[in-house]
Amino acid sequence: MSDTLITIIAILLAAVLMFIFPLLSVSERSDDISQLSVETATTKFVDNARSVGKITMQNYTDLVSTINATGNSYDIEMEIQVLDENIGKKSAWTEGTVIGENTYYSIYTSQIVDVLEDKGVYVMKEGDRFSTSVKNTNKTLSQAIRGVFYSISGSDVYTIAAQHAGIVTANGSY
Amino acid sequence: MRLQGLGVLFALIVLPIILVLTYYIQLQVDTINLQNQYDSKLLKSTYDAMSAFEINTANEQLSSVSDSLRTIIEASTNVFFSTMATNFGISNASKSYVEPYVPAILYTLYDGYYINSPTKVPIVLTDSEGNAVSVGDKGVTKEGDHYKYVSNDKYLSYDDLEEQNKLDYGQLLYYLGNDTSDSKYTADITKAKFETKNVLKTYMPYSARYINETNKIDVTIIYTLDNYITVEGTINEIYYTKSGYLLPYQDTSNIELFDSNNNKLDLDSSNYNQNDVQEYIEQGNQFTVTLPDSNNKITIISDAGEEKKALEEQLIENPTDNDIQYKLDKMSAVVYYTKAKIFSDWVYENLTDIRESDLVEISGIKYQSINGEEDTTHNFNSDMHIFNTSENSENRIGEFAKDSSFYNHKLNVIKNSIQYNLNLAMSTYNANVSSIASDYAMPVISDEEWDKILTNVSIVSFMQGYSCGLKTYNNYKIVSSINNEISVDKDYIYYVKKGDFNNQSTEYHKIDCEKLLNNCTGINDEYIAFTSKEVKYDKIYDDTNSKYNYDHQNIACYDCINDGNYTSSDIFVDNDGDNIDTKKKKQSLRTAYYIGVAKCRNNLYKMNAVENSQGYEIVTDELNEKSIKFSTVKALEITYQGLIDNEESSTALFSCDIYDGSTKLNTESVLFVNNSANINTVIINLDSDVTGEDVFSKLVFQRIKSEDVHVDITGKIQDRIIRC
Ligand SMILES: [Zn+2]
């Protein structure tokens, strides 16, 4: 009986070692590569937008198609923190721009996408802050395989996520 | 083989592959991350450099000399390198550590550009105060094949030099290349000792030279980011130097001018030149300009009744009196259109024969870029007339259409010049800083980016050679500025109703904001315009007037200014659905636009080399007799060299007597100016009150042998546009 048991254990181990482990490893590498391309695409999108001062529908769809080409589905969140020019306008102050006193109000993804669909361009101005974060919404293969062995608690664990942000350096125009 | 054996074998093969793959992909991810970080750092540094530039120009009283921005640019590059060093985790002091990784920083300004790049420069001998020392200066002596310098010793005169060294006279002294002792210097630059330094190269104007043999034209034209140009050269054997705003109409007759008696002025026969007409308007005389418009004519009347200076003083007393501000605005606008019309008439009369193929002296080369072989040069062989504006129509007065021949030609000229010189800087960089650079190839700047560089003052910074994970970093970043004192972008001029100007509870808008149109009540609404820089840098204290400049109180519109994604109205076109009221409102806004743009441009600092924008003509370049008769000369510009007398003396070098008929009015004399024999230029201003026909100036040279001296005399013609 002990011999049979050992054989069964050996076969199970072999299966894990020869099938599941390589699969897990390859799917994790595939996630790494997805991570790489998502990160590159996100950074390129944000840096381009903030150096020309506008988000265009063209750039946005480029971002969407690049990240979707990785075979996963993603959630893109954009945020523009619009610099309120009027906060610095208190007559008692001696400087136009008081350091540390800048105030921003935020515009989020749905508002931006609405304007993009309507006009094709979303304009920002110098001094605004623009950030984008991308997270996968489906379970990737590696997540699914790992899920078999140990459960991932909660749904907020992403394997592919990229974020980039920065100050807008130019005034955009149509 | 048993199953276990297979398993072990499999694991042995697959595990290393997986490990290497993991490591490699991680390296790739790190490289990309690092590259992104460097991109951000480079952009941040460039942005900081631009902020420094903006703040410095806002606080500086700029002079009209084109090189006057040099110190500001130098300060800006210092900020760039400091930010760079800090961002790369090195202290500010070790700026020299990052310098070699920056092959070039390009500053495109209003009428030219600067390139900062590492260059091999000869080490020039300087005295204790930092001034360069030349042969012929105090303390320079000849010793063998080289020169010696002992500060404040004695003079070496021209006659003391041996025949073969006479040419050295007046030349700068350099450290000797192969000699380590510091007491030997040479005037021969080929023997000088060189060092590699990041230097700001000479200012390069956006210029091009055109020679047209058949029409006897040989002129150099300096372009700017907008439609302001300077023309210098001979047309039909007459030398001109003129500058002004070029209007995009070959036929400028649809812009009409009326004097204080409402008489239409025909400038061809009148006595006005650009400066005189400006003076006349700024004295407060009534002057009217009518501009063509889609609907009616747009009329701008300057009828202040008071001098510009007086109005400005009143405004300092009563800063809230918007009527005075509006009078000043209209005055500036009328000056702008009148001067632009006079200048444009002259250009279209004299330069329409110039073709693109007349352009000379732009060297065409190929260069290695990261994309392969690139041409720097646009093919300038076309027969296109540059100043033929029949196809240049644009519904906004003063703006050339982007597809017009003038606009395209201008962009090509500027682009070529910049590419050529940038590329030159990069090759010098490769030759000199080769310890770091393997072979630096210039990145290709896209057309969209060129458009950005060539419409606003911009900084382009290049960085390369820094080790970045699996590769070396090579990229560039562009930052443009709209908030500076040296250029105006028509899209960043803001408008507010005259009565609401500086009222804290009302908003200012862009011209095409729908709110502005909706709040307009009709044709009689008047608007005050100001530029975005006045808001960004408002409350800058002006020492000379002891007041705050631009203390603008209005609130930025949350649609068009804070956000920017607003509903715009096309005020330049009347739509079919527009009722009569809307049409009137639109016309009122158009008037505001024309006044606003003109006023902002007119009030801009002009960095052009030519000061008073018109009328310089070389009267003679040969001085056979020492007295010349002028009837209409305001100033004399005398260039001389070959000074043979080196003793400092209180005797005037030469003097210039000014007569009215036979009555001597005064004597202007020029003392010993410079103790070296370099080329010197002096300007003698003649009294502008003397306007008689018989005024003449007699030049008396006391300490220059006139036969050895080369003198150019440039008279500045006071009268109207004179063709000698
Ligand atoms: Zn608005």
Folded structure, characterized:
The complex is a heterodimer of chains A (174) and B (724). Chain A has 174 residues and is an alpha+beta fold. A 4-stranded antiparallel sheet of chain A has the order 3-2-5-6. In chain A, strands 1-4 form a two-stranded antiparallel ribbon. Chain A has one domain (2-167). In chain A, α1 (2-52) packs antiparallel against α2. Chain A contains 4 helices and 6 strands; from the N terminus they run αβαββαββαβ. Chain B is of the alpha+beta class. Among the domains of chain B are: 124-192, no CATH class; 249-352 and 488-611, no CATH class; 619-711, no CATH class. Chain B has 12 helices and 33 strands. In chain B, a hairpin with a 4-residue loop joins β8 (204-212) and β9 (217-223). Mean pLDDT of chain B is 76; it is low at 609-632, 690-698 and 702-724. Classes of the chains: A alpha+beta (174), B alpha+beta (724). Chains A and B meet through α1 and β6 of A and α1, β19, β25 and α11 of B. The complex binds zinc ion. Zinc ion binds next to α9 and α11 of chain B.
Topology:
The complex is a heterodimer of chains A (174) and B (724).
Chain A: H1 2-52, E1 54-56, H2 57-68, E2 74-83, E3 104-108, H3 109-119, E4 121-123, E5 129-136, H4 141-149, E6 161-167
Antiparallel strand pairs in A: 1-4, 2-3, 2-5, 5-6
Chain B: H1 3-59, H2 70-87, H3 95-98, E1 104-108, E2 112-122, E3 140-143, E4 146-149, E5 174-175, E6 185-186, E7 194-200, E8 204-212, E9 217-223, E10 228-235, E11 238-245, E12 256-258, H4 274-282, E13 287-291, E14 298-302, H5 308-317, H6 322-350, E15 359-360, E16 366-369, E17 372-375, H7 405-432, H8 447-453, E18 457-468, E19 471-481, E20 493-497, E21 507-510, H9 514-519, E22 527-531, H10 532-536, E23 540-542, E24 547-549, E25 555-556, H11 558-563, H12 580-602, E26 616-620, E27 627-628, E28 633-640, E29 654-660, E30 663-670, E31 680-685, E32 695-701, E33 712-717
Parallel strand pairs in B: 21-25
Antiparallel strand pairs in B: 1-2, 1-18, 2-7, 2-8, 3-4, 5-6, 8-9, 8-15, 9-10, 10-11, 12-13, 13-14, 16-17, 18-19, 20-21, 20-22, 23-24, 26-33, 27-32, 28-31, 28-33, 29-30, 29-32
The site of zinc ion has 8 residues of chain B, from α9 and α11.
